[in-house]
Amino acid sequence: MFLEQGINHENKFWKYLIGSVLIITASFVGQIPLSLAVLYQSMVNKVKYPTTDKEVMTMFESNLTLFLVMLSFVFAFVGLYYVVKYLHNQTLLSVATSRSKIDWKRIGFSFVLWAVFAVLSFLFVYYRSSEHFVWNFKLIPFLILFLAGSILIPIQTSTEEFVFRGYLMQGFANLTRNKWFPLIMTSVIFGSLHVFNPEVAKMGYIIMIYYIGTGLFLGIITLMDDGIELALGFHAANNLVGALLVTSDWSVFQTHSIFIDLSEPSAGIDVILPIVVIYPILLFIFSKKYNWHDWKEKLTGKIAVNEPLN
User: Fold this and answer.
1) Is 202 among the domain residues?
2) What is the tens place of the pLDDT at every residue in 251-287?
3) pLDDT tens digit string along 65-119?
């Protein structure tokens, strides 16, 4: 099974601590081009040196910013590959799925399902409150965004899924030999890393319910499906469709999207609705399509491995 693939007598929990540091270090190395670009703008072009993340994000043309920011995830994924291969003596496939190969049909189904839902949801909001949106479509910048985003955003989301729902989930399973602790811990860590997003500053910490709840949803579909394929498709669709459809001056990325949202953000039913309504509906759809069963055992059961605890 999926979690058990990372458990053996040599794969101690301390290795995951070291591996996490190495992956984070690789991510920092990937941020060097952005840092150099900022210094160049400041020293050569005499642009005011940014003191906030928002100023960094708006210092360059948005497609260039997207490229520079996403480089850190490319480096992090390479770091993950080497950590898994040489520190844990595993294959990247083993931290992705219990199947003999990646199931691309699962990724595609999840991607299309959430992409269609995201587009329909936006259209519903747009036709209810069209005055809050401004047409922003410019052909050439949008095409560049589409091409770059279609490559870089899935790399970003895949890196996060491989790290959280794959690598760290197996790591915590090594520590506790159960399934509920890896599920909860990876969800909390995943959600907590969004605390510095500008959306949190605008809406307050209540939006953390959405971020942690989304992490929990992705963890559940990973454990129930014995692989991260569904999480890969969902996460890629969520970020890519969002980047292409609508941007705002308070979101993480300002992109050459089709629309600009001018509304003042507030945390309301849109924070709770996905957690209590939409995600359960998706779980139902996935469970019927992939014949999920034994929910309690797969989400909270113990891992029976004849090896001592770390």
Assistant:
1) yes
2) 777 899 999 999 877 767 778 889 999 999 999 999 9
3) 999 999 999 999 999 999 999 999 999 999 999 999 999 999 999 999 999 999 9
- Amino acid, single-letter form, for residue 228: I
- One DSSP character per residue, 68-93 reads HHHHHHHHHHHHHHHIIIIIS---GG
Residue 310 maps to a domain:
no
Q: Is the pLDDT of residue 176 over 80?
A: yes
Under a CB-based contact definition with an 8 Å cutoff, are residues 241 and 181 in contact? no
pLDDT for 249 beyond 90:
no
Please compute Rg for the chain using Cα positions: 20
Domain-embedded: residue 305: no
- Domain containing 121: what range? 3-300
Beta-strand runs (E) in the chain: 133-135, 246-247, 259-261
> Which H helix or E strand runs over 56?
helix 53-57
Backbone φ, ψ for residue 190 (5° rounding): -60, -45
Does residue 307 belong to any structural domain of this protein?
A: no
Nearest CA-CA partner of 11 in 268, 307, 245, 282: 307
Number of structural domains the chain divides into: 1
